[in-house]
Write a structure and sequence with these properties.
Strand order of the largest sheet: 1-2-3-13-14-15-16-17
CATH superfamily of the largest domain: Phosphoenolpyruvate-binding domains
Radius of gyration: 24 Å
Strand content: 15-25%
Helix content: 25-40%
CATH topology of the largest domain: TIM Barrel
Number of domains: 3
Number of helices: 17
Length: 470
């Protein structure tokens, strides 16, 4: 039973793939695990999934698994001497092909780049360490001026600024990885380098309802098309690594807050990722700025925060999780933590589901209710309750293990797999048991129960019951 509301998503890698380490990470605070398909083999990922599902059985806690696709990462080709120097102010030539580049000449294996670049397009190499501005493009060769100089070595990454590339967010590798991930019954597929809502629709045609779709917002074109992308997706990730390369650095915190607000308004989970406790890859403690960064995401209302290299290859994976857990709890225990949520006005649909969800926060505050227990088949009602950020526990009761696992990523939700009650009286008996065993509640505690009658029929939430535990 967690003592916090926001969730921790941890990336698995060489430092954390051992089943004993995964169990330790879960015990100290991990609610969801990320499989990074940019690294590792299918066999590695299958072994991780098997170990995670064993932890589920041992603990009785549903655990979310996110399969993160690599996406269309652009890279330059190779060089005759393995690297070249880009000198400030010089003009270089960029062409498409597979030969080795040379001094003043970069060759890349991406015809899409030749198609997208025009005068004024900015190219950043090696995570933004070097930068050139395109001066002309005749379709055969690009000429560009070096703005930020340095050494450019083989196969370094390329970010294309202020241009939409004529390519899908899914590569052939992604399609193969996605098909494999679906055979492993993962809960979410994360799409990298999404540019438009069409990228999400293309993925949905492959995934169907077998997994939820997380869109990683890391390109300016995605920020521009944010509303339609989020509507098409099931969840979002603020992927600040590439986003911070492609956007001006000072815009990243603004975009982060914007994405969190829009996701909450839609009732869809949002994850803040990248560089959260970066120094803990090597150090046993984070910087004070990193602690503040994690707390800021919590204050802004993020559903989850993510650890990347800190748990995948870091020297202190369990310590990083434990410290993140402490920072999150401290922020949530701040008396002013709830004021932000009370101030923000959310849009509401004219449905019984939204009417009930909206009223829960007020009832919880007035009656000092300890928990709201929501019966759900698809998870939609519990997610609508979660977006309201009620000042009490949210227990999602569902007969569907897949629904329980997906709900685990949502703010404040503790998922429980249980059958639908056969009657209203049976429901009240079940609530007494679940409240004590899963939420640690006691006699005299006030709880709320959200359900649809008749039971077990999706989309029928129409009842809110207030009860006191016997």
């Amino acid at each position: 039973m967690r003592q916090r509301l926001a969730k921790i998503l941890a990336t698995l890698g060489p430092a954390s793939r051992a089943p004993s380490m995964m169990r330790l990470l879960h015990d100290v605070g991990v609610d969801a695990f990320r499989l990074n398909f940019s690294h590792g083999s299918h066999e590695d990922h299958a072994a991780c999934v098997k170990a995670i599902r064993e932890i589920e059985k041992e603990t009785g806690n549903p655990i979310t698994i996110v399969a993160d696709m690599q996406g269309p990462k652009l890279r330059c080709g190779t060089f005759e001497q393995d690297e070249i120097e880009l000198r400030y102010g010089e003009t270089i030539k960029i062409t498409q092909g597979s030969d080795n580049g040379s001094d003043g000449h970069v060759i890349m294996p991406h015809p899409e780049l030749m198609e997208a670049c025009k005068a004024g397009t900015v190219l950043k190499f090696d995570d933004g360490k070097l930068m050139v501005t395109v001066q002309s493009n005749d379709g055969q060769a690009i000429t560009a001026k070096v703005d930020v100089p340095g050494m450019l070595s083989n196969r370094k990454g390329i970010n294309v600024i202020n241009a939409v590339l004529p390519m899908s967010a899914m590569t052939d590798k992604d399609r193969k990885d996605m098909a494999f991930a679906l055979t492993q019954d993962v809960d979410f597929i994360a799409l990298s380098f999404v540019q438009t809502a069409q990228d999400v629709l293309d993925a949905r045609a492959i995934i169907g309802d077998k997994a939820g779709i997380i869109v990683k917002i890391e390109k300016p074109s995605a920020v521009e098309d944010l509303d339609s992308i989020l509507i098409s997706a099931d969840a979002a990730m603020v992927a600040r690594g590439d986003l911070g390369v492609e956007l001006p650095l000072e815009q990243v915190p603004i975009v982060q807050r914007q994405i969190i607000r829009k996701c909450r308004a839609l009732g869809k989970p949002v994850i803040v990722a990248t560089h959260m406790l970066e120094s803990m890859i090597d150090a046993p403690t984070p910087t004070r700025a990193e602690a503040s960064d994690v707390a800021t995401a919590i204050y802004q209302g993020a559903d989850a925060v993510m650890l990347s290299a800190e748990t995948a290859v870091g020297r202190h994976p369990a310590t990083a999780v434990a410290i993140m857990d402490r920072i999150m709890q401290a922020a949530e225990n701040d008396p002013e933590f709830w004021e932000y949520f009370r101030r923000i006005q959310l849009p509401h649909k004219a449905t019984p589901e939204d009417a009930i969800s909206q009223s829960i926060s007020g009832i919880a505050q007035t009656l000092q209710a300890k928990a709201v227990l929501g019966y759900t088949s698809t998870g939609s009602t519990v997610q609508r309750i979660s977006r309201e950020r009620p000042p009490c526990r949210i227990i999602g009761l569902t007969p569907n293990p897949k629904t329980a696992r997906r709900l685990t990523l949502s703010w404040g939700v503790q998922s429980v797999v249980t059958g639908d009650p056969i009657s209203f009286d049976a429901m009240l008996d079940d609530i007494q048991t679940v409240s004590r065993e899963k939420a640690g509640l006691k006699t005299g505690d006030v709880v709320m129960i959200s359900a649809g009658i008749p039971f077990g029929r999706p989309g029928t939430t129409d009842t809110l019951k207030i009860a006191t535990l016997d």
